[in-house]
Hints:
This protein is α/β, with parallel strands linked by helices and 425 residues long. The chain folds into 2 domains: 3-108 and 262-339, FAD/NAD(P)-binding domain; 110-259, FAD/NAD(P)-binding domain (3-Layer(bba) Sandwich), CATH 3.50.50.60. The protein has helices at residues 15-26, 47-51, 118-122, 136-144, 165-179, 201-214, 264-267, 312-330, 379-395; strands spanning 3-11, 32-35, 40-42, 61-63, 73-75, 79-83, 88-91, 96-104, 109-110, 127-128, 149-155, 186-192, 217-219, 222-228, 233-238, 246-250, 253-255, 260-261, 297-299, 343-350, 353-359. Helix 1 (15-26) links the parallel strand 1 and strand 2. It starts with a strand and ends in a 30-residue tail after the last helix.
Amino acid sequence: MxxxxxxxxxxxxxxGGIVTAAILRRAGEGxxxxxxxxxxxxxxxxxxxxxxxxxxxxxxVRDEARYIPSGVTWIKDSVCELAxxxxxxxxxxxxxxxxxxxxxxxxxxxxxDAIPGLKEAVATPYVSTNYDFxxxxxxxxxxxxxxxxxxxxxxxxxxxKCPGAPQKIMYLAADYFRKNGILGRTKVTYGxxxxxxxGIKEYAAVLNxxxxxxxxxxxxxxxxxxxxxxxxxxIFRLKNDPENKQVTIPYDLLHVAPPQVAPDFIRQSPLADxxxxxxxxxxxDQHTMRHPNYQNVFALGDVAGTPNxxxxxxxxxxxxxxASNLMSAxxxxxxxxxxxxxxxxxxxTGYGRMLLCEFDYAGKPSPTVPLVDTLKERxxxxxxxxxxxxxLYWNMALxxxxxxxxxxxxxxxxxxxxxxxxxxx
Length: 425
């Protein structure tokens, strides 16, 4: 078996992996390898706007090679096995990669088999999802060609990346129907396994008003358990019903959010949280992002088992914490940097309107945009989502560059050495 060794190995060349690698390189660390099979890098948050006809899908993708930091080894392969007790991993092509320190940021995988009928349904002309690069344009085709009837939007109860996405496209669709005189002959239904529209009361108050404005039938505690594409029916289980009663909701248009889990090689490894083996998130200390049982292993981004929403902003905020704590561990010191659970979730509420939701582990709103009331739907926030955030992502975040909104004290590193804050989501 071919073997190689690197001081730091990062699994995943998405947001978390690239940003962390860039920060480590800027801090002077060498001998870093990134294991990533894809030659394309996607800015996934903008797929909502692809599904709404505002952006072409091609604007969300660039060559991965452009963002692998200079001096970092790119192992263009996927991982099939982790052996943390012996400090190595095995790639799909059979390379054994040994490491001193491991950072896991491979993202999630879609669990298409979790809901019977889901895979078959997305192959029909009536069902789509914005959680796929190739399906997001189909969402726009469904919305654009919709002539009225039942439009159903689904939100699962298990953790997913960008959990605001299912309601974002619902609001955009409803707004499009309104502008084109279709909303009056349309029933928009939100089938959500959650107990309310949003978990933070300050933002929920605004979003409940948006639901009312569009006349949306919000069905909470409704868990999607089956899709019958031949009948165009979505079957929901009532979570708060002692008899597990099921409700059938017909659809003419259905947007689904596929359930998501950690990649198989994570779930099958000792690094997964055994208290939730089906999800398989990497077990980490929610503040230091270090694995409690393997002191040389860190994780961030969607795969990390932190008790907050999985967003690009979370990954960007976790990256400097991971970088700082890894460097401390390399020097035999205890991790001092702490991630406070910061999440940014831009909720688009219509064409030209956006609510920027920012909060921490305590569920406390944590606005970062100076002199702007982000507890309101705003046009300037829409511009931030459509133009500002993508620019920050491609030109600042992925380069590990310092931006004006810096809190270096959170990492213990000097502002010149580490970038510590982003609005990217």
